[in-house]
Design goal:
Elements (H helix, E strand, L loop, with lengths): L5 H4 L17 E8 L2 E16 L2 E12 L1 H7 L1 E10 L5 E10 L2 E10 L4 E4 L2 E4 L9 H6 L12 E8 L2 E17 L2 E11 L12 E6 L6 E8 L2 E11 L7 E2 L1
Antiparallel strand pairs: 1-2, 1-14, 2-3, 3-4, 4-5, 5-6, 6-7, 7-8, 9-10, 10-11, 11-12, 11-15, 12-13, 13-14
Amino acid sequence: MRYLLILFLFPIYVFSQNNLPYVVGEYSSFNLTFEGINVGSAELEILSNKVISDINTFHIVGKGRTAPFFDWFFKVRDVYETFLDTSTVLPLKFIRDINEGGYKKKQAYNFNHNDTVVYVKDTIYSIPAHTQDMLSALFFARTFSKDSLEINNSFFVPIFMDEENYLLEITYIGIDKVKTEFGVVNCLVFKPMMQEGRVFQDGEKMKIWISDDDNHLLIKVETEIWAGTIKALISECKNNKYPISIIK
């Protein structure tokens, strides 16, 4: 029943590469810290344009890894890939290849949004309209205009992950300034409400900072887990569609 709300909460978005806030070549890297200690790094990159079944897509890759010292304790090598339809900003294909402390998992999803299904190996799963994967959801959220946001109001993003459907609630909580290596950036701040039973059990303990400019670039993520606070802060960005707005 909750998925029926999406029909009312989601307008029909039609985009082109010209009005999306990102382009091929956009690259961002992040420093990952736990309680102030550097524990790893992450990267996000729009690698290329790729045509899949006559549909133009962005091939986007996200990678995460632990620092060499922490490899001795809990080695992480994660790779996420999405192929994002540049007209609808919906994923056509998603690949997840993770290695976390010896736990390995590979997944490949093929989305058919016309039939609202996703193919996983030999199984077909039904999905709600406008469903995103774990990586494409970020790039979809970056398309929202600040003018459409109101403080403490939420929007909803259906997510398909681990062979299940989830409804992710994202609340806009206001403006904040973030100090980065290349200057202070004015940001929009959001709180995603993660599903229960996973690592992030309380959505109020996770915050995401997106640049308040035409790029809507991911700047910072802060998450509280049972053992402390994990932070990801942007350390480098290049090939952005627009100049980053730095506060002087």
